[in-house]
Amino acid sequence: MASHAFIFGAILALPLVLSRAFTAHKPARTTLISPESERVVIIGASSGIGSELARIYAERHAHLILVARRLELLQQLSQELCPSAGSIHIIQADVTLPEDVSKVTLESLQALDGRVDTLIICAGVISVLPFEELAGIDPSKSWKNCSPSSLAESDASSSTSSSERFSHLMPSNAQAALEASQRIMNVNYHAPLNLTSYFLPALKQTGPAGNIIVVSSMAGKISAPTRSIYCGSKHAAQGFFDALGMEVERSGVHVSIVSPGTVSTDLRNSAVDLPPTDSSPAASEKKEVAGTKKGAISARACAEGIVRGSDLRLHNVVMPWFYHVSIVLQIVSPSLILSTGTPDCPPSIALCFDTQRYLFNCGEGTQRLCTESRFKYAKLQTMLFTRVQWDCIGGLPGLLLTVSNVGSQYMKIMGPENLLHALLSARFFTYRNRMEVMAIEFNEEHKRQEQDDFLRTTAVFAYPTQVAQDQSTPVHCDPQTQDPTEARAIRERFLTGMFNLTRFGDNIESQQQRDRSGPQEPRTGPNLINLLMAAGAACTPKEAGGAPRMSDADADLDDADTCVTNDTGDASLIKGLQAMLEGRGTTQPRTRPNPVALSYICQCPDYKGKFDAAAARALGVKPGPAYRDLVNGKSVLSTDGVTIVNPEQVIQGARPGRVFIIVDCPSTDYIESLVHSKEFETYYCSSSLENDKADQNLIAECIVHLAGKEVMTDTRYQAWMKRFGPQSQHIIVHEESCGQPLVWRDHALSAFGLSELDQNIFPLPFYDNQPSYDVQGLATSKPLEGVRVMAAKPLMTFHLEPRPGLDLSDVVPIMELERPPQSVSLNHAAQSHEPDDPIPGKDVVLTALGTGSSQASKYRNVSATMLSIPGHGNMLLDVGEGTYGQMFRLFGKHRPSPLSSIPMQSTSVDGQLKALRGIFISHLHADHHLGIVTVIDNWNKLRDKDHDKLYLIGPTKFNSFLSELSDTQNFGYDNVQFIDCADLLISSDLYHQQPGVSDPRFKVPDVITAVLSSSTSSKPSVQITTDGIIHNQTATMDDDSKGRLQGLLDVTGFREILTVPVNHCRSSYGISFCHNQGWRILYSGDTRPAESLVRLGQAGSVPVTVLLHEATFEDDMLIEALKKSHSTMSEALAVGEAMSARFTVLTHFSQRYPNIPRFESDQSDSDEDHNGSNEPTRKDQSMTRAKSCANVGLCFDMMQVRFDEIPRLSSFLPALRRLYGAQGDDSTEDVNNL
User: Fold this and answer.
1) Going by DSSP bridges, is the β-strand pair 805-807/796-799 parallel, antiparallel, or unpaired?
2) Within 13 Å and on the Cβ side, how many CA atoms surround 876?
3) 1060-1106 per-position pLDDT tens digit
4) What distance in Å separates the CA atoms of residue 1225 and residue 1214, rounded to the nearest whole number?
5) Prior bond to 625 cis, omega within 30?
6) Which of 84, 248, 494, 945 has its CB surrounded by the most CB atoms within 10 Å?
7) CA-closest candidate to residue 270, choices 51, 130, 50, 123
8) Rounded to whole angstroms, how far apart are CA atoms 598 and 706?
9) What is the C-alpha to C-alpha distance for residues 1119 and 459, in angstroms, rounded to an integer?
10) From the CB of residue 740, how many other CB atoms can be counted at a distance below 10 Å?
11) Strands (E), 28-72
């Protein structure tokens, strides 16, 4: 059986959306709706399974709608069932006709008073002929019986025309095959799809009990000969309803697919590939042979199984039971997918079954790789981590948010102790109540193994030599202040607050967006504010001084995915809110770094072999339950009541499941502990053992080593590798053994095209395809003689079933940027423009490291911008996931040039990090800061002096996140000086002295106005000196805060740093940096156009040189911008004009614009005038654009532009359109994720 592993590139990512195998969380349907009140529509009810279903539901006194083509049979059935059914209504219809489907829907809704609980679709037709026979292709003619002489004679024949010459190669009845295929697809696929589209709105209104039951076939799961077009139609239906179930599950509608084997019905009389009137013996024989009823179940038994599955809300109902064996044999075809690991995408390993996915480690960049390879997030249900270090877990928070957004309801994460602590540190911005997360922490005393239906996992512990592991001291708590059991209970409660599968409808953010957008229809259901108060927390807590503050425990409550619906009790909501608010307002129990590195020994399910029914019969075993017991490994009695029959007598080819091992050895310090672990002994080659059980050892088919050159060249490690024997395939996954190839290939090609405009502004990404050492040379060395070793390659796959082995067929070729990838002529190169007056800060460099929103796409990483100040160093404005990788690709790995006179002239990523002075985080959304840990960690390793500090400005709770995370990993946070955004707020007096803006679009929520107005009582009157310095903010700071701020001002040369709340989520800030050299930059963060930001830009004597403003949506997406609290491009330009900014640079584009957003409206300026709403007219927007375009620039990833080069950016637009004009909208982003 070939594995259907879906693989993708360079770091081993994997598909990640919801896994449907988990059904335990669904309540029994009978608790939601009583059988006698159920309203059931049965399609295809006149005979067979459909008529038996009608009888069963009538016995339950349900209300029935029976639909079929044959009216006479429907009438007979109705008369039979009328006495017992709650009510019954029949409809004659052909559901392959759209007009009949519409009629069925309307009549059903009228008869059932607009409510449908259950839709059962069991109409279907079959095919019985092999495809070759149907299409008129002679199966006897093939290359095997075609002689070379006959081919030569045919070639030599020149007297015949080409059409005659090749006529024998044409099918004789292709039209019949096409027509049969169309007929069977109409009935088996298109009709169910159309019925679903008509009935789905009514099913959604039913509440959480709506069911769609589709009677498919085992042919939809396992193909069979003579059923080619039938299998095709059933596979199509299986795929559609599988996906539909994922999409509608959140709204309470359940989709169940029934896959019976052979059923005793007259279905074969409906064969689409035989004439309906053909009663010849040949036709009858074909129907009988192709459709034998041997081993068939009755229609009644099938119907009973369907009703039982509906009541239990099972996703898949398979009948009879032994067909489960065939399905298991088909899905257990696992493959390992390997990647190389680079600074922008650390190594991960995926294990792929057909219906399940596992991910080993999830560093920054995993999501982006999924997008790069055009894969959806599907079937991922388990993630395993080898270490609680950011290079292993950095992508976890973002990935959990994404898989929840697309519908996944369950995720299991496993790893060392401290894994839960690390995840909980992100609770201030990572939370979903549509998803349950289970955290399993392995420890040596209590938990070493985990098993599910697909995988048995054993964790192997390795410690560095210098660590004396004290087993009496728990890692996950402070033994002096916290009991380990209590600490675990607290964390479990916090986890419930983060991920609580409560399935509420609308989220809080949506409610607040409605409040901002004006009057709405009254909401039904419990009041959110009352529920919050019942949970023990006010919606807007206040400081002791009475002023509302943007950084309290519920700082980001409006982003919580917490919802309220009529069908959910208040108690469940209150419980979830209590856990969430407790977690936000309470610090976790302390812990200490856990140095352990886990390796995983993984075994796939045992291969049970093939059941030999003939052997069982010969031994006197009666078919039925005894067969099932034998398959399940139980012995049974034969029919004589004496003879015991064992499973091995009737099952051939049984063997243990395949084994693979993931080894993580971070350094040579771990080797001693690793190689002496007894767990590996079971898999050593028998020749390396001296015990009696050597011959019983299993083979580790594949061993993946997450290890660098230092480890791989250590003789102790090499000797240990050799003990596994020559049958094990060793694969080395590390950047030292695989080089630094380009991972983001589409972005690299885009950057190559941009470099044709200006190689300084749009530099090429750095790459190095040469590894630092030769793995092949290592493999041929004497210590590893006879050992199969190779370095990982992008998209390399190792198949575990049916036959173990490497698969290099999809390996991605190494990329070299040698030739222009496009033939577009870029003759519209921008010309330099000398400014009329000098530009302040003309040598300051703005570097766009990430310019996309929500999640990374192929072309744009998430938010990050670097400001390089000559003579002073660098500032980062937001640090989205993958920022360090972007810096590595932009600046390369080379050491600084000895000729560099200042740090900014270095060309290495190390040099840029050493020059880093400060970081600003605008708000707590994950796409704006998840890259900060890697940046701080690498900066800390490069510090020259112990007293060097890094300054971080951010919301209060961001400091809590990093402080708690630093308990699990020493990434240098002790050397970071945190400054609260709230301590830098502009004073109320200065704020209200500004003219502001009258545009109603710029109105900010009352809470922002209250925050800015409240500072009057706590801050003195503003004093502005002749040099424009504003002396006001340090008056309310404590001494430590004053010292931190002064330190930042000293190292960066800034005069003043001011913040304002902006209109996005709670704790969202815009910031202004005013420099001593007379220039000023203002960064918006994420926001709607906000008057607070305009007033900040208007304040002070130094005008804004550059406004860096988000422009998430194009102008025709205004409704989405309002809904998601983002800005359109025209609105961003209007902000720049309102504050008289010299230049406006736009960033944070929706990922639905992969290359270049439409900068000018395609609409005319003659659209309707303003209608009194807050939305601007198209004409207003166009005028704003016309005034501002000359001083506007669009950001692209890795764009570097000096302030005095910004005027050139707008002149690039014609060439950019020409460059990207042929590329379509390659959208990968769901607007709902923004």
Assistant:
1) antiparallel
2) 31
3) 999 999 899 999 999 999 999 999 999 999 999 999 999 988 999 99
4) 18
5) no
6) 494
7) 123
8) 11
9) 50
10) 23
11) 39-43, 63-68
